[in-house]
Amino acid sequence: MQFNIDATQNKARACTIKTAHSTIQTPVFMPVGTQATVKALDANDMLSLGAQIILGNTYHLYLRPGSKLIKKFGGLHGFSKFPNSFLTDSGGFQAFSLSDNSKPDENGIMFRSHIDGSKHYFTPQSVLDTQYDLGSDIMMILDDLVALPNTKERIKLSIERTTKWAQEAIKYHKEQQAKGIGLEQNIFAIIQGGIDKEFRKLSAQQLCALEDYDGFAIGGLSVGEANEDMYDTVEWTTQFMPTDKPRYLMGVGTPEDLIENIDRGVDMFDCVMPTRNARNGTLFTSFGRVNIKKACFKEDEKPIDETCECYTCKNFSKAYLNHLFRAGEITYFRLASIHNIHYYLDLMRQAREAILQQRWPEFKKEFYAKRSK
Fold it and tell me: Which residues participate directly in catalysis (predicted)?
């Protein structure tokens, strides 16, 4: 992986990441393709939207259809036909959140499948083996995630396990690469520590000392804490992260969250929000959110956002989308998802351009000014 910083302004960064499958310009939002597809959309849709990288989920793909089957089809790229980059998360969060009785120990996480109740065990090595099969460009290591709020003892244990697993993972990855496995795959470690500054500092310093990692993520946020606590934690943590490697904030978030965390030095984001909100009737626009379910849109001839250049806005009215939603038509999910993902990706393109032009503070003010009208 190649990484270059193209411009900075204050803490905001515009960077370029080159993987085996695509050139990724940051700040970047990664649409979530949990099951090797972004819900309601296919590879052609994602290419039309300009997606340079999407996220797949190791937990879900391990359980169904299985990583060996995906490997047989040429990995995620061959299976899904999306030719650009994939990032796969380790599945630790899903094992934690979807299993009623997941049990982490010193060596990994035991969990029961949410599909059939079968018992499974993830280790730092096994989740990498799964991701080698998936052929993702960026692989996340297994970390010990805890819900917030939590006790200091549990958060401390989380950091100790996450560091131990990170050491095991990078050692295993280097051993596999020496055997010719995963040569074009990159590996990111995940900083934990809740919203406690000393714990975050400890986790960041321990992990970032492992210089063979290709990038670093901030995990364990947007799991119940207040937004300001999340922003403060990110701002505190980035100072301990290397400047010459990508910084990824996992599972975040709203358009406002993206803007605030770009301002704090983050390069990469992912979240289910664009597609999940689309399916529920909430559409993102330059002036705020639109609830397309409202009766006031029943005869509205205008597009969702008159400044938007997406396929949906260029062709369809709010009245049509209101009708499709109320009628329960599947077409609604596709058109709404196209719009919301376009909005997120375009917001990142605009943010990058503002940083390159050294007008990031003005762009941030304009972003909020439009939403207050």
Answer: 89, 270
